[in-house]
């Protein structure tokens, strides 16, 4: 019997008719929530973790900076939860003129006016100040010292000098930091470029040819130097309150946590592991995966999160079919450079060790993730951009059906990952 499998692709979806009998497992997060984001937000703000309520922290006349994630993390739905945070500040006597929204763009691009409105929401757009963080402008940064890892800590001056600092964001698995959210709103979110690159370079193994440290991976915190460095850097600035959401894998929100930077974030990480850390025993010859649609597949840079997760399920020599629209292409010229202009991963590693940047790291991560498998990228990305790789770019279901027919006498057993960006296979020993 055949079944229709839906894979989100940009703002649409690709429907594939595949034999149900060949499906090993459809890997999804656990859908055990019943509340909408508004209910979750209210509950989290009413019951902060190891912290007073926000209204009990702030005082009339204080300047407040609220850090939010950039448009590539639009799934967090900041336009829906910000009104409750700002509303609580207003009730505590904070004037709108004393509130600034600071977008934690890290080293990403700035926002258009339309994107700013999308992030803030209609109620407060134009009524509170909005600023994009600029990691390259030293005049907008404050130096706070060095971590034990040798990372010079530069954070956005506005955030550092505010009377109150509130961090918002989302918690998912992260291939560098273990989990996103919490301290990541600071580093890389509102950090200086030198701080970001030094921190992320801690991912490289000590010896040439070994690539990346094994401890730097999704779901790893305890022995992860990238996370530990972030935590040390975060301790150098006073964070008064955080609010983080956890996605549900269907375009909604499964949970929300608020309160103390460390305690609330830890609680959110535990929820994420429980919902989206899927224990597995075997790999497969064929895996179909979607990033989860826009904005998770806005470009290859963002799609890399899903690619890395899904690739772990593919056996050596097997195939990963990844649905990623990538309407903005690669996402950064440095990603394209390290993918296209180096012939093997050792050469890419050498270049990364000489001149580490986050974008080059992402390009290197992509090529190492698929080193022993075959990637079929269903995408609008230009084929020539990836011509120096073995990645096959296709655009239509007809192209895909042709590949499946030509490569396999009979379709092998397969996994389906409809939201690979948020779902992490965890192999049991």
From TrEMBL:
Q: Could you name the domain of life of the organism this protein comes from?
A: Bacteria
Q: Taking every annotated instance into account, which residue ranges of this chain make up the domain Lactate racemase C-terminal?
A: 282-347
Recorded GO terms, molecular function? lactate racemase activity
Specify the LarA-like N-terminal domain's residue ranges.
9-207
Q: Which InterPro entries match?
A: LarA-like, LarA-like_C, LarA-like_N, LarA_C, Ni_dep_LarA
Q: Which residues form a coiled coil?
A: none
Task: Please provide an example of a Pfam family that matches this protein in its UniProt record.
Answer: LarA_C
Recorded protein name is Uncharacterized protein
